Amino acid sequence: MPDSRSHATELSTIIDTKVAHEARVYDYWLGGKDNYPADRALGDAIATHIPAIRTMARANRAFLGRAVRYLVSEVGINQFLDIGTGIPTAGNTHEVAQKLDPAARVVYVDNDPIVLAHARALMASKPQGKTAFIHADLHDPASILGDNAIADTLDLDQPVAIMLVAIMMYFRDSDDPHGIVRNLLDVVPSGSYLVITHPTADFDERAMARVVASAEQAGITFYPRGRADTEKLFAGTELIEPGVVPVVSWHPNPGDNADPESAWYWAGIGRKL
After folding, report:
1. If one looks up domain 22-272 in CATH, what number appears?
2. How far apart are CA 241 and CA 270, in angstroms?
3. pLDDT tens column, 234-272
4. Residue extents of the structural domains in the chain
5. pTM of the predicted model, to two decimals?
6. In the chain, N or C: fewer CB atoms in 10 Å?
């Protein structure tokens, strides 16, 4: 597998185990092993406010699989830009996509150096397909869009699915999240897709306020958004039915009957006009 990484903005490759990191906290909730005491402490602190947080994290992960299967099987997408990849676990984007289309191509992006350390596992794709990893931060979208991996892996003349699964909550309104999403959409053609999940306080405002406080105390920005504000992130796209809905309610698998409010995320997919 060729290494097509380059970095417009270099990030530290040092893993600071004394400071909690979003990707490692999420890994802890999913039952992974690539996390440290600081990550587990924050994960447990949040779990005291939302006891079902692990179930919610798994529901969000399950949505990613459904979304990728929909995009490959229903609309013929075979190129993905997955930003905020997280630590590899079962059912990564390329695994789901290449099971359906072995020629699918995926570029992963994450700012956590521990994900960089796992990049080789992320890129163990089927021979017909292609994957790459960019160590970059979405706060600097130019460092992603200008990376050689984009041109080497994706054909930007053809539709691409931009995956922003549980990442936009790390951006305050003052960070211009709408501008960041617009920059990403600007480089892909009409007929591309935008996938977003976003934590919300809509289902329990008090509990989510305590989660925000715990995250901020650990030095992590955490900015939940309501349904209307999540919908605004899809500007420039046409939402696929059923629109922005609770994450467990977006095209559930046959037989799934989970309470829509059992996972406090909004989810949706939009098609670029």
Report:
1. 3.40.50.150
2. 9
3. 999 999 999 999 999 999 998 888 899 999 999 999 999
4. 22-272
5. 0.91
6. C
